[in-house]
Amino acid sequence: MINWNGVYPAITSKFTDNDELDIDVFSKNIYAQLEAGVDGIILGGSLGEASSLRDEEKILLLKETLLLVEGKVPVIMNIAEQTTQDAIDQAEKAQRHGAEGLMLLPPMRYKATDAETVKYFKDVAASTDLPIMIYNNPVDYKIMVTLDMFEALASSQNIVAVKDSTRDTTNVTRMINRFGDRYKILCGVDTLAAESLFLGADGWVAGLVCAFPRETVAIYRLVKAGRGQEAINIYRWFLPLLELDINPQLVQNIKLAEVYTGLGTENVRAPRLPLAGDERNRVIKIIEESLENRPQLPDYLNLESAAV
């Protein structure tokens, strides 16, 4: 059962020098996420280099993750396909192999109309028993899931959450004003997470959590416990790192940060290449300066949420 509250890492896929999945390094990162107190794991997102993963690799990552988490947190599979039938097929495979939820993007490559997008979501939802989080990211994927579209989707009972990457924090309030608690709202943009949580978002689908899991979870737990100033202090320290997530090279950026925190390698899958030159030096400077000033965290794992 997924409650869609908390921090959900969009986990990076790990590769060996020979371009195979690196399960050992992947496992180390998952254990760090669990120890930090994350509330779920999302596989096969854009940060997970989903478009470069073969179907059998996605299933392997799912199976390995289920073994690693041992039921402690739900495992969610991302679905990003070009056709409705392909999305239905991927949803069926994910459910059959043990995924507990889906994150669903609009059709890839084709810029569907509002009506086509709604039907796509509804058809996929009707094909599975799994709960679904709609990924609303018009900046990168060119399709905006509007409030009216969410109204049309409300009849699909297993469409229960939205990852809001609209870059518009007022969308959190608009969703709550229109739908109350019908949809769980999770921020999908690292640099707007604290703002979204203060406005009432239920969770955070995070990127830099892959390298800094404890700081990410601490911010979430402090906000929800009503200890806002402590959360803000950590967030201000974190912001230069979080800005690495809103960049075309977010995968390379975050994997480089994982190297510095001992939670990954720089290996990416072609056509991506590791960072080089001035840009690499710029990112390293941000990471090193942040590590030099890394904050002391309170005992955030034992916080209780403040009464609403």
UniProtKB/TrEMBL annotation:
CDD domains: DHDPS-like. Its EC number is 4.1.3.3, 4.2.1.41, 4.3.3.7. The lineage of its organism: Bacteria, Pseudomonadati, Bacteroidota, Cytophagia, Cytophagales. Signal peptide: none annotated. It comes from the Bacteria. Belongs to the DapA family. This is Dihydrodipicolinate synthase family protein. It comes from Agaribacillus aureus. Keywords: Lyase. GO terms for molecular function: 4-hydroxy-tetrahydrodipicolinate synthase activity; 5-dehydro-4-deoxyglucarate dehydratase activity; N-acetylneuraminate lyase activity. SMART domains: DHDPS (SM01130). Pfam families: DHDPS.
